[in-house]
Amino acid sequence: MAYQRVLVPINGSIGDEHALRVVFGLPRRGRAMIHVMYVVEVPQALPLDAELPEEIQRGEQALQHCEAIGQAERVTIEAELLQARHAGTAIVDEARQRGADLIVISVEGRQRRGEFSLGRSAPYVLKNAACEVWVLRRPQPPA
Predict the structure, then answer these.
(1) Edge-to-edge strand order for the sheet containing 77-84?
(2) 32: in domain
(3) Which one of 51, 111, 112, 143 has the lowest number of neighbouring Cβ atoms within 10 Å?
(4) What is the pTM (predicted TM-score) of this model?
């Protein structure tokens, strides 16, 4: 299947590049768009438009890194930084607004109370997205 609009939520981890490389290998019709987004989660105690300079700087650096990867591969990437209460909700809303065909989300996966966990955002996206969702998990280093 060829994808026209692909959304890649990033979080500044090594998984960002892995997700982009997977997306670059997808068949795309014509001028397909790859949209990369970084969500700064704003705590409930603060207004949604609160100034969070460290988090915003981290997000902008992650987006610039993804844009540089795209330039090196000669792939156009549209990058955006958003502030939201919950990243999963922002990802689903953004995918809907952009008419995304596919969301590619990278997760690290970790143990919580002895159980494997995908965190909060990936399960929310899997449950609520109106389009296809691919969840990528990089292999864990040996213990």
Answers:
(1) 77-84, 33-41, 5-10, 102-107, 132-137
(2) yes
(3) 143
(4) 0.90
| Choice among 19-28, 63-72, 76-85, 98-107 with the minimum mean pLDDT | 19-28
At 108, which amino acid appears? Answer: E
Q: How many CA atoms lie within 13 A of 2 on its CB side?
A: 8
> Does residue 12 lie within any of the structural domains?
yes
The number of beta carbons lying within 10 Å of the beta carbon of residue 51 is 9
Residue 88 domain-assigned? yes
CA distance 89 to 42: 13
CATH number at residue 118: 3.40.50.620
Average pLDDT of span 50-70: 95
Q: What is the mean pLDDT of residues 99-119?
A: 83
Instruction: State both tokens at 100.
Output: 């995304």
Number of domains in the chain: 1
Contact call for residues 8 and 23 (beta carbons, < 8 A):
yes
Q: DSSP assignment, residue 109?
A: -
pLDDT given for residue 119 in this prediction? 82
